[in-house]
Prior knowledge:
single chain, mainly alpha, Amino acid/polyamine transporter I, two-stranded antiparallel ribbon, 18 helices, 1% strand, globular, disordered N terminus, disordered C terminus, transmembrane transporter activity, membrane
Amino acid sequence: MEISGYVPHGPSSSFSSFRAYLRALAQTPARLARRARSVSTSYDEMSGVRARSGSDMQKTLRWFDLVGLGVGGMVGAGVFVTTGHASRLYAGPAIVISYAIAGLCALLSAFCYTEFAVDMPVAGGAFSYLRVTFGEFSAFLTGANLVMDYVMSNAAVSRGFTAYLGTAIGVPAAKWRFTLSALPDGFNQIDVVAVVVVLTITLIICYSTRESSVLNMVLTAVHIIFIMFMVILGFCTGDWKNFTEPADPAHRAGFFPNGVSGVFNGASMVYLSYIGYDAVSTMAEEVKNPVKDIPIGVSGSVLLVTVLYCLMAASMSMLLPYDLIDPEAPFSAAFRGKWESNLIGAGASFGILTSLLVAMLGQARYMCVLGRSSVVPVWFARVHPKTSTPVNASAFLGLCECAYACNAWISQVHTHCPMSLFVVVWLVL
């Protein structure tokens, strides 16, 4: 029986046997024509499609869990870099307003995610939303890109954890990596710490969503303490005149050295620091009261992060005139002292851990729903009856990230991996 053009898939999946695979391959043109236009419905996504996971994901999350996941996903190491670029090159001291504008834009986008998540509380996020509006082909392109983006970026971020941790304890990251002479120079350092971090987080998210949320809240709280300490230190030791006076009189002065256009250019750059709130929508299936908890969780996390970012930007602007800010390491250069640099490294390390945890939770849910929809093998959709988590998807993606995070040379492979490869795979499922 077909519902709204959707064709159910069961034992006759392309991967059920080698013969079935060859038969599906021969039928690729007809299957593409049929499935590319197929549109699901909210009822399908929450009933028949969801049932392919076997067991259900337990509803254990409340609004404060979602706020913690949103904050943990957004407040990573990115703010320690984007702030310097935006302030020095574009906004100047008005970087505070740039963060406020970017936060408003992120909040408006978060409202869209909230509306969909409340109406259709499933784990698919953007993939499921597109599947019921524009069809399966558009949804697959988005879902495949999101999964690839999560895997590649998480691998890179995990390698960054080694560098920030080294800064925090005063040990160069190079000493924690060993060299393979068989690989080219520049790509021959094996990062064991990054692999251990990814494996540990993978085990945690496989074990329990609730415990993952608790760990995220603890790490996020510690990270916020580090941030607030830096903010207070900046306000106490900084100078208010740095908001209007540059170090070099030849440079433009005032709170808006580059005018309104500079503020908006800075806002477009720092908006990247807000990426992460969308991962919260993938947890909708595990929320106890979606109608109440999701709006508070998603919008509340964006508002809280906006306040934190504005305070960080104001603190940095008080410590140094905008034309002395280091675009690459603004906070380290602003504090100058060794112990302050160690403090920033420690805070960024906790931020990386929380952003990794939230991103890996989100990527597993995307992969799970891709499996439910039969655009990848249904094996990825399985939810373990004891842990109530998508163990197969979590473990598979975690191992992929370990391979990418282990070596910088391996992490470059994705630049040569065409999207057409994933389209071909989809065609034969």
